[in-house]
Structure to design on (988 residues):
């Protein structure tokens, strides 16, 4: 009897420390943010729940500009990274012998933090950067300032490139392992059936590795959607991404802007959750067609 | 039996205890309520061996270096106090203090602040500063002209002993004589120049303080001078907006000729400097008249760069030091403030090779040996003579305006 | 993709796209783009004077490395704090994740779905929301500005990875090993030490490296909760991204990468079995 009881509680005991951390600090933080977004902030005398701050934020044009800009950066960087990564993973799977050098190369960026990646890409691609200097010396530009502005611009190409530089190896690594297993098991069978490599890829490898592609690109998407540092450092003055805009409201000396900051970050969070959810459902359906 | 489940429960208890002891244990000690009754010697004796956390804007490598080397070494030698410089923008440390004030945290983390203008006003209004303490500082009593308008008031807001002067600044522009023959010295000339040289001028995005002061120069010229903005407590934003209409018109007319067609602005002054050093733009601006000379000496800028002021003058102001309400080491903070106001430190800071910040002390109160030292400091090839600067000095307006202007700029110009 | 093109065009395109030299060029181009930034970084790190417009530095030097070693700049302390912080976060997270992973990998229990969602959520939900939400409570309870506070908030970010990795390791391992050793009357700790632990190895490597890297490169939460008191490498590096002395910025970056790489290599060697298990990163 007692043994049964311990068996019943055992998983909870095992989970207790982890749940303590996640419930107190993660759910706690989320709950505080949520309460403040509804205008409940007793320390500054706001005691009533209201939708005032939501209507204040959602009624601004800046909000839609910011949301669009954030979505644009995440979507473009995730989509391009995913496509390139699939191409690379497939290429590496089809290599006759495993290239150790390539193996090392594409793991390296995983150990390089985003902030270092940002710094390197800036040194490379800013208007005074390395590539601009080479173009200038080659006579392609009359002065380095003619190099297209990739940073602090609304096109956000620089930010997207930084994310791609970081995420392509990440997705490749995840997809490659799965593709390699599939290829070993099924690829040879398919080629003995005289299927072209192209058909093997589209009919076998791609559909079967879809779950890993979905999950890798969903992580990347959620990450870039909520990321703060790089758009803060290298984004345009206007519009700002949601996270940066939220932060500016958070540090405003006017405490009434705190609930506004929380509204923006809650909206940001909801979109992350929603988009990852939609993405899942969409990709699942896509897989069924394949 | 020793099972994973049990280990995990022990861990849990341990974790809760740890948070309990570390988390709440720190709040108990608060020792310095009576510090104002102590003598200066007692304060110094108690501060010996402590660390002062000095929170300041960290955007200038040379200033940081001056604090970390000259100030830190001398504080250690003279007072036995360690200086821990923490780089943080004023908006961020004000926000941090605001948070601490909200939850009544009596044992804070900041001992001394570099502060001025609208941040001082915010801090005073929210009662976040400790004081008045200025009269306790020997070098303040000895060397400072306490009644001078730029010492007794900070952007028009009464100082009341809640901060002590640390240095003075006057805005100047810089340009490369090898590239620009005659720089524009008024708002009208600037507009003309920018239209003739599209893409070669910009200014830092507000609320960067250099960007913010640049806008105020235009405002003075276009909207009736500083006299049109008398001291006030609260700003009527709509009225101000219409009063500043000529300024917004000017900036919007100029916008398409700016760097990147004014679609974006450098976020900080350091970025503007970088653009200037990289040759992307033809002007930079600074609050420190001899800073450019220092940068030339360090090889960061070509030796053909010079500074200039506008015909009708440029804005000067004072920066200060303040102690937060919950500073854990108020004595150490006061010792550091005293050192920073000593003639030795001020003269070291005045040297463009170090920092190039202007003196906060009254030169008439200094001993002759210090005056001679000051006269010997080489201000560098790019620095304007002191009398030129003095003849072109404009006062700041009330800090209540500053945030309103910055918000209006975002609304009228940036979007 | 080829909608606008004629059929023959499409075919020739396919041929080109699939031809080996073309693929090789594309892949080579990609890998060189991957490496190119490192080369520029190394050039900057060893330059003394690299004026605007020049393709290569005109003077070489070790200025940045002197900056790194000069005690006045406290860089060695910063490296120590960063490494110590991430290492303790990683160890603590591993200790907490193993039992949690076991629960999720081997047991079925009511509300399991909810727990799984909770364990996934911190990967999806931006740290900025959680950080700004909890900041005021951290100030109130004295956790802000402390090493412990930063550790706890890092723990939230890294735990999901650890738990998910160990859950899948336990799942793959199954219960039979535990039951067999139980039948052999091995004590609880013996079973863990001699049976479970060796099988957890790949999980230890994967989770150790991943969690360390996530913690080691965390900027926002360290900055917000550490309040300037806890200074780590990302905080020092932050301003160099868009301004400041590029030589110093490059040296800090290189050191940053080297510490992360050395940790990776040491962990892989120390726990042997260098087989990567990237499938653990899946959602």
């Amino acid at each position: 009897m007692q043994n049964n009881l311990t068996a019943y509680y055992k998983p909870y005991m095992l989970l207790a420390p982890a749940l303590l951390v996640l419930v107190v600090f993660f759910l706690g933080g989320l709950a505080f943010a949520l309460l403040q977004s509804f205008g409940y902030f007793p320390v500054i005398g706001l005691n009533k729940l209201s939708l005032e701050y939501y209507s204040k934020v959602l009624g601004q044009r800046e909000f839609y500009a910011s949301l669009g800009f954030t979505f644009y950066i995440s979507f473009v960087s995730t989509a391009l990274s995913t496509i390139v990564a699939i191409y690379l993973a497939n290429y590496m799977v089809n290599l006759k012998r495993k290239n150790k050098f390539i193996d090392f190369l594409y793991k390296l960026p995983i150990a390089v933090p985003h902030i270092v990646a940002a710094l390197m890409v800036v040194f490379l691609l800013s208007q005074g950067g390395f590539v601009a200097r080479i173009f200038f010396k080659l006579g392609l530009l009359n002065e380095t300032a003619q190099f297209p502005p990739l940073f602090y611009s609304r096109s956000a190409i620089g930010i997207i490139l930084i994310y791609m530089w970081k995420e392509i190896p990440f997705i490749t690594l995840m997809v490659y392992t799965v593709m390699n297993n599939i290829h070993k098991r099924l690829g040879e069978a398919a080629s003995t059936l005289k299927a072209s490599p192209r058909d093997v890829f589209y009919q076998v490898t791609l559909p079967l590795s879809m779950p890993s592609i979905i999950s890798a690109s969903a992580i990347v998407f959620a990450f870039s959607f909520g990321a703060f540092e790089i758009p803060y450092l290298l984004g345009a003055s206007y519009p700002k991404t949601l996270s940066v805009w939220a932060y500016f409201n958070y540090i405003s000396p006017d405490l009434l802007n705190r609930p506004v900051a929380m509204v923006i970050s809650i909206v940001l969070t909801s979109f992350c959750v929603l988009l990852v959810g939609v993405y899942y459902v969409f990709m699942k359906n896509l897989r069924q067609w394949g | 039996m020793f099972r994973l489940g049990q280990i995990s429960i022990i861990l849990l208890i341990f974790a809760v205890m740890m948070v309990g002891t570390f988390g709440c244990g720190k709040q108990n000690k608060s020792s310095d309520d009576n510090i104002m009754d102590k003598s200066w010697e007692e304060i110094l004796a108690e501060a010996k061996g402590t660390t002062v956390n000095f929170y300041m804007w960290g955007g200038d490598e040379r200033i940081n270096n001056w604090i970390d080397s000259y100030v830190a070494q001398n504080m250690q030698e003279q007072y036995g106090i360690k200086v821990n410089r923490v780089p943080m923008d004023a908006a961020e440390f004000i926000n941090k203090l605001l948070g601490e004030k909200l939850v009544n945290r009596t044992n804070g983390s900041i001992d001394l602040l570099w502060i001025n203008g609208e941040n001082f006003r915010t801090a005073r209004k929210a009662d976040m500063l400790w004081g008045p303490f200025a009269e306790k500082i020997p070098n303040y009593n000895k060397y400072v002209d306490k009644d001078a308008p730029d010492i007794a008031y900070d952007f028009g807001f009464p100082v009341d002993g809640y901060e002590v002067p640390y240095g003075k600044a006057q805005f100047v522009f810089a340009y490369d004589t090898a590239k620009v023959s005659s720089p524009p010295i008024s708002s009208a000339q600037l507009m003309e120049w920018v239209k003739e040289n599209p893409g070669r001028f910009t200014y830092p995005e507000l609320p960067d303080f250099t960007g913010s002061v640049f806008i105020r120069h235009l405002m003075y010229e276009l909207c009736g001078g500083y006299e049109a903005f008398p001291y006030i407590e609260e700003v009527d934003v709509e009225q101000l907006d219409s009063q500043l209409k000529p300024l917004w018109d000017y900036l919007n007319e100029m916008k398409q000729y700016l760097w990147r067609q004014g679609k974006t602005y450098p976020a900080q002054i350091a970025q503007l400097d970088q653009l200037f050093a990289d040759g992307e733009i033809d002007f930079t601006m600074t609050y420190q008249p001899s800073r450019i000379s220092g940068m030339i000496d360090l090889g960061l800028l070509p030796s053909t760069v010079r500074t200039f002021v506008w015909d009708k003058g440029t804005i000067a102001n004072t920066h200060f030091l303040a102690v937060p309400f919950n500073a854990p080491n108020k004595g150490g903070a006061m010792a550091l403030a005293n050192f920073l106001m000593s003639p030795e430190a001020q003269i070291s800071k005045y040297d463009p090779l170090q920092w190039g910040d202007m003196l906060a002390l009254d030169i008439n109160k200094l001993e002759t040996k210090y005056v001679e030292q000051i006269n010997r400091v080489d201000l560098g090839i790019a620095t304007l003579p002191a009398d030129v600067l003095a003849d072109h000095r404009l006062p700041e307006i009330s800090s209540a305006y500053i945030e309103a202007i910055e918000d209006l700029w975002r609304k009228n110009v940036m979007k | 993709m080829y909608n606008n093109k004629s059929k023959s065009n499409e075919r020739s395109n396919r041929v080109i796209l699939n031809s080996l030299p073309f693929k090789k060029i594309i892949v080579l181009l990609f890998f060189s783009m991957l490496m190119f930034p490192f080369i520029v970084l190394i050039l900057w790190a060893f330059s003394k004077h690299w004026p605007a417009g020049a393709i290569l530095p005109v003077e070489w030097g070790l200025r940045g490395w002197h900056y790194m070693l000069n005690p006045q700049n406290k860089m060695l302390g910063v490296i120590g704090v960063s490494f110590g912080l991430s290492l303790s976060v990683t160890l603590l997270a591993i200790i907490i994740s193993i039992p949690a992973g076991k629960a999720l990998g081997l047991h079925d229990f009511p509300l399991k779905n909810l727990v799984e969602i909770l364990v996934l959520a911190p990967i999806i939900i931006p740290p900025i929301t959680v950080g700004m939400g909890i900041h005021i409570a951290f100030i109130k309870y004295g956790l802000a500005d402390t090493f412990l506070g930063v550790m706890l908030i890092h723990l939230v970010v890294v735990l999901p990875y650890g738990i998910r990795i160990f859950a899948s390791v336990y799942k793959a391992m199954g219960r039979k090993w535990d039951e067999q050793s139980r039948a052999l009357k091995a004590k609880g700790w013996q079973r863990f030490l001699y049976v479970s632990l060796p099988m957890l190895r790949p999980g230890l490597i994967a989770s150790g490296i991943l969690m360390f890297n996530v913690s080691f490169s965390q900027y926002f939460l360290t900055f917000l909760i550490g309040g300037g008191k806890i200074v780590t490498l990302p905080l020092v590096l932050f301003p160099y991204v868009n301004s400041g002395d590029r030589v110093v910025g490059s040296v800090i970056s290189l050191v940053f990468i080297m510490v992360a790489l050395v940790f990776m290599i040491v962990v892989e060697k120390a726990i042997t079995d260098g087989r990567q298990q990237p499938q653990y990163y899946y959602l």
About this structure: Chain A touches chain C through 97 residues (CB under 8 Å).
